[in-house]
Amino acid sequence: MSDQALSPPAASASPPPRATWFGRLIYRSEAARGFALLSPTLIFMLVALLVPFMILLVMSLWTAVGFDFDTTLTVNNYVQATERPIYGALLQRSLWISGIATVATVIVCYPMAYYVAFHVHRNKMLWLVFMTMPFWTSYLLRIFAWKVVLGYEGVINSALINVGLIDQPLEFLLYSKEAVIITLAHAWAAFAILPMYVSLEKIDKSLLEAATDLGDGPVMRFLRITLPLSLPGVISASLLIFIPTTGDYITPALLGGPDGAMIGNLIQKMFGPINNWPMGATLSIILMLVIAFICVAFILMTMFVRRRIS
Amino acid sequence: MSTESYIRRPNRPLQVYAVIFLIVLYVPILFIPLFSFNDSIYVRFPLEGFTVKWYIELFQREAVWNAFMNSVRVGAVVAVLSTALGIFAAKAITRYRFPGRGPVVGFIMLPLVVPLIIFGVALLVLFSQMGVPLSLYTVTIGHMIVCLPFSIATLLPRFEGFDPSIEEASADLGENAWWTFWRVTLPMIFPGVVASLMLTFTVSFDEFIMAFFLTGTQPTLPMYIWGQLRFPQEFPSILALSSFIIAASVVIVFIGLWINRGAHFSTIKGDDR
Question: Which residue among B95, B213, B222 sits closest to A138, beta carbon to beta carbon?
Fold first, then answer.
């Protein structure tokens, strides 16, 4: 009876009392209405995110046998991932590269967010649009642009040779860790500004006046009021850059060379040329776990620091 | 506002920094259109002369047109579907309190932060285990995952910005839920809907990571570019194609962000005061 009432066609065809049972639930209960509206999105996301992830988890316990899979469950892949140094080294390098890129982006973007939040009074929206616009253009093309700039015969090298500063192209520009870091920082800058801008914009200006009235100079005012109050924005900006860049593989593939390869490249290769899907699944799971662990540690640390300050 | 003057005093170094920042943000991208008009197969200074031959050559390539149409088709479907779902979801999130609301919203917004390679790989595994061949449909599903959070994030401020009592008034005056939506809700959130359509279309049109794992035999435009990057002699035409994509994205996104600018302000301003 209950599933008859639950399915809409049956409910509408059945006599009034039963139809109103479903109707009453929808009209009386706020939660039911909320879930009903959200359900298309939620079901889609469950099917398209959670289910594949579960299968990925299961596949990470399989073994690749030629072009087929041995579906007996084993933790062999995980053992291999911890034992063979290449995986650890790549993961470590990925974390290192995206860590530096994150710090660089936040440091470079903070003054910009500060400027727009405090010193731009007219056309604020235009500034925001201009700052965030590059974020909406193709990620692939923004990276490609840096290949054009940093290339062996690219913009920087050919310009420097033309001016006469160097005779030979600088080789370290392309295919290095530095190239990857610069490109990542540039590509994610637009993304980092928004959360920092929002938290800076929220700061009550009268607090700054109070600090000034009580004798703080500009530096102390910044360190004691503006910076601590904007910390949530800084934290979310850091996480918003760090998490996706750790798994990036386009930038290292185009600009990294052998020195700048990251874990994402290996995952991609496992599903492509190497054709070891279970190992690729294992590496994906490990990558997610490591990122989650670092983020939780980072959030706990900042909570601890904030409690100590206030 | 004389009391605020010492805070509002213009900060010269910061102003210079801001201008430099914007220049550095845009210059690398602008090299792409610059060299796409350069009459040389090499991307280097000095520039050798102005030409549009790379563009003309591009227009004559059937593969480019096919890839373009693939991208447009996927983008249009993704934009409409994710905006439609986004409207329901944004309304549910702003209007109703239900248990587990926070975690559910967090789960839906997950694709904004989790490395897309993981979702791409996971979907690939799902499709292959189900025996679904890779095609533009699989790319569409992948892009929906990427675009739904953007759509919801664009529409949320719109719903937060308008008074639910207007909808209630419409119901009191005898409209049913369906007509209330068409005659009251939709006009109120319309700028957000347009912005969401444009932004999600652009995100899908430009998306590469999901497409990389989920594309079958028909490439989208970014996949086509990726395939051509291996050939040095193709470099100038890729520059031309990229310039076109960047120009299109910038125009669409600018219009979208500009139409929706009111919502942005009201949430930022309305959050705390």
Answer: B222
